[in-house]
Structures are given as structure tokens and as C-alpha cells.
Amino acid sequence: MADATGLRVETRLAVLGRPTGPGQPLNVPIVPASNFRAAPGGTAGREYSRDDGTPGWEALEELVGDLEGGSAVCFSSGMAAIAAVLELLPVGARVVVPRDSYTGLRALLADGAAAGGRWAVTTVDVTDAGALAAVADADLVWLETPSNPLLDVVDVAAVAAAAGALVAVDNTFATPLLQNPLALGADFAVHSATKFIGGHSDLLLGVVVCRRPEDRARLVRRREVAGATPGALEAFLALRGARTLAVRLRQAQESAGELARRLAAHPAVGRVRYPGLPGDPHAALAARQMRGPGAVLAFEVADAATADAVCAGVRVIASATSVGGVESTIERRAKLPGQEHVPAGLVRLSVGCEHVEDLWADLAAALDAGA
């Protein structure tokens, strides 16, 4: 995947957002400053980081914006990024949200709906072609593809064509390397950079990438007045993590595909949800819309008790709630509030960079013991 300069994505990850010129540091340094000396005579210049940003934010925004083909704005977390997009809507706006989507998003929408009708929320199964009629008169359609935790894949171009207004896509699971929602007609691509972009489970950070410059200006204003600014260290770590995204994702995705195939053949496992499997109901759409199925999968065992036993029985894989790190993580998602639609025995697995044979030995032993 090359850009207008002809540079492929692996090269852009390595070179974009770096200082240039003799004597400049190769990496953007951490600038732990809130205040800057004012330019003489009131001329333009950086004065206060909440208003004017920092070199670290700007470097990360340059990189992620380039990868997504738009203009990026960084926030203090993925949830702050989500909230900023929703705050662009007028009071009473109608928001369509998928049945299977991030619990934090749906909790925020529920709070807003309950607080005097900040927005009206309609929940749909966006994988159902009949659901497209529900998006025609929405003010915002929020998509998540692949979804968390059922790994549903949504036809972004079809929804964008049917939608009456704005379309935002949570692109966290796919990353900009595997899917570019703006090119498919979306207005916003949203990332929890806490996950694959940062890649090391050591930061909280969110990014929104906009198709239109005027939307970026509105989001910068939301960040300024709401104060959801990323920390200097977090921006540094996210940029450093992004440099290796292509290498990490390639390894993790290859292992995820192999584990999905082996899990599908294991007697203790029912359905395996992974759009890279030929029999997956989303395989054809994923092949058309994405450049790879990603590094997250889900599989179903007999019941909640069995799933809990599997999660407790692994030793190499960490029983933990987040995804996208170099370490593999596993969780029974139905244990969380708001996940009533998730099968009780569904286990989500985020595949990291460990050797696939060690991961399989760990999983197989836990499955055999828990069955």
C-alpha cells in the first residue's frame, strides 16, 4: 500500500513525523511543557500546549493521518476520541449504533440519552441488509468493523451510501494498515491508540481522523475546551509503538489465522469467529474491504464456566481485558455489563507476537483441562 509519494506503508511508519535537518534529533523528543515563551508582538507561535499542541502530538497526528488518508486529532484516550465525535452533534441528534460494539461507547450513549435526550439512540444489527433502512434519517451512524467481540464485518461503503448524514467507523481492530474507512465513504475513522497503534499495553490515547478539514477544526476545538489532551509521554510511546505496527501486525495476524484453524478443529470448541476463515460468514466482505483479517478472534465453548476455566487455565496468554499488545490476551466478554447479546461461552483472543506453537500449546492445554 503506497501513498502519493510512492512510499509503502512500512516505510511511512518508519519515517513520517520525524524532525528533519542537520542537528535535529532522529526521534521527536518528549516535551514536558505546558507553557511556552510568547512570540514577540503577539505573532503566531506555540504558547500553551492545551491550545497549541506539542511536537509529540503533531508527529503522531501526521503519521496516523497519512495512514488513514485524512487529518488526525489526538485525544487522551479512545473514549475521549469517541466523546469528541459525539459532541459535534446537536442536542436531540439521532445516533444509530451497532448491536455489537464497544461497551464504553454504548454506556456513553445511554448516559446521554438519559440526560434530557442529549441524543436519541437506535441500536441495529448492521450486518443485516434490512438494517440499512434505519440509517437513512440518522444524524450519525456509528460503525465498528470488525466488531468487538463478535468479529462482525460491516460493509462501510454500503452504509455510507445509505446514510443520511455522518458516518464514523471505529477502526481499532483493523488498524489503518488493514482498512481505511475514509476511502470507503466514512467521515471519521476512530482509533483507540491504546491498542494496536501503541502496541505495548503501556498508554491510553485516542485518535480521530477526519475526511474534511473543517471537521478537524471542530474536533481540535472540542479537545481544547474539554481538556481531553494526550500526555507528552503517552504521545511519545504511541509514536514509538506505531513505528513497529507493520511488523507486529504481520506476525500476530499470521498466528491468529493458524490458531483459528486449529481451534475450529478442536472438539471442545464450537463456533470460531474470525473473518480470515473460509467458512466465516464475513469472509467474502472482509476479503473485499480489508487487506487482512486482523489479529483478534473469538471462539465459543460449552458455557460460561468452561470459558472461565479456559481463561484461568492459560499460562503464556494473559487473562486481561484489552487487545492489541505484543502479548496475547484472553477474556470471556459476556461477563461484562451490556454484553447480553454475547454467547455466555464466547472467549475473545487477541493474538500477540509470541511463537504460535507456544500459544497453541497453552490454549490446547487449557481447553483440554476445562472441557
Automatic annotation (TrEMBL):
<dbReference type="GO" id="GO:0003962">
    <property type="term" value="F:cystathionine gamma-synthase activity"/>
</dbReference>
<dbReference type="InterPro" id="IPR054542">
    <property type="entry name" value="Cys_met_metab_PP"/>
</dbReference>
<feature type="modified residue" description="N6-(pyridoxal phosphate)lysine">
    <location>
        <position position="195"/>
    </location>
</feature>
<dbReference type="InterPro" id="IPR015424">
    <property type="entry name" value="PyrdxlP-dep_Trfase"/>
</dbReference>
<dbReference type="InterPro" id="IPR015421">
    <property type="entry name" value="PyrdxlP-dep_Trfase_major"/>
</dbReference>
<dbReference type="GO" id="GO:0019346">
    <property type="term" value="P:transsulfuration"/>
</dbReference>
<dbReference type="GO" id="GO:0019343">
    <property type="term" value="P:cysteine biosynthetic process via cystathionine"/>
</dbReference>
<dbReference type="InterPro" id="IPR000277">
    <property type="entry name" value="Cys/Met-Metab_PyrdxlP-dep_enz"/>
</dbReference>
<dbReference type="GO" id="GO:0005737">
    <property type="term" value="C:cytoplasm"/>
</dbReference>
<dbReference type="GO" id="GO:0004123">
    <property type="term" value="F:cystathionine gamma-lyase activity"/>
</dbReference>
<dbReference type="Pfam" id="PF01053">
    <property type="entry name" value="Cys_Met_Meta_PP"/>
</dbReference>
<keyword id="KW-0663">Pyridoxal phosphate</keyword>
<dbReference type="GO" id="GO:0030170">
    <property type="term" value="F:pyridoxal phosphate binding"/>
</dbReference>
<comment type="similarity">
    <text>Belongs to the trans-sulfuration enzymes family.</text>
</comment>
<dbReference type="InterPro" id="IPR015422">
    <property type="entry name" value="PyrdxlP-dep_Trfase_small"/>
</dbReference>
<protein>
    <submittedName>
        <fullName>Cystathionine gamma-synthase</fullName>
    </submittedName>
</protein>
